[in-house]
Amino acid sequence: MTIFLTLLLAHLLGDFPLQTNRIFRMKVQGPKGLALHAAIHVLVTALLIQNFWQVWPTLFILGILHYLTDWAKLRYANDPLTPGFILDQAIHVLTLALLTMLTPQIIPVLPLWFLIPAAGLALIPALLTFAYVWASDQCRANMSRPILSTATIQWACTQLLPLSQKTGWVIVAMLVAVGLLVVT
After folding, report:
1. Which of 36, 48, 112, 125 sits a CA distance of 20 to 30 A from 158?
2. Other Cβ atoms closer than 10 A to 123
3. To which H or E segment does residue 181 belong?
4. Helix (H) or strand (E) holding 66
């Protein structure tokens, strides 16, 4: 459980607050951007485990699988965006579960009592980003029968992504500050 939560926390941080608009644009443009994004995931994961050099093959596999998953999403999941987003995240979580089972020797830096609320906090920008993706699909679909008011959807299309990014950076700062106290 602790290994999975460590990998999940690293994933949530790498895929949401640490994937800035610039990194996202680079990722969409080609392999170098995808490689940078995957490298950020590997680096964040390495920071959250002890003796990361002893499990470097696992980190390498994590990076390759993240790269391939995002490459496939960019290539095949375009419109609407919501199903591609959900499938992408599901594949990432399944990859993390598989790596958890195959690499029981990973030793997390952070204790379970910290990882549970940290992963919960890191879910906030992920959920805000999901809501933004869904709202963007609604905006593009002309909203013939909107579930929410048109004004609410329009607000979500313009405000949720920046809100997710700002919230994500606050959460990263909080987790780093508290995590440093827990580790020392």
Report:
1. 36
2. 16
3. helix 150-183
4. helix 56-76
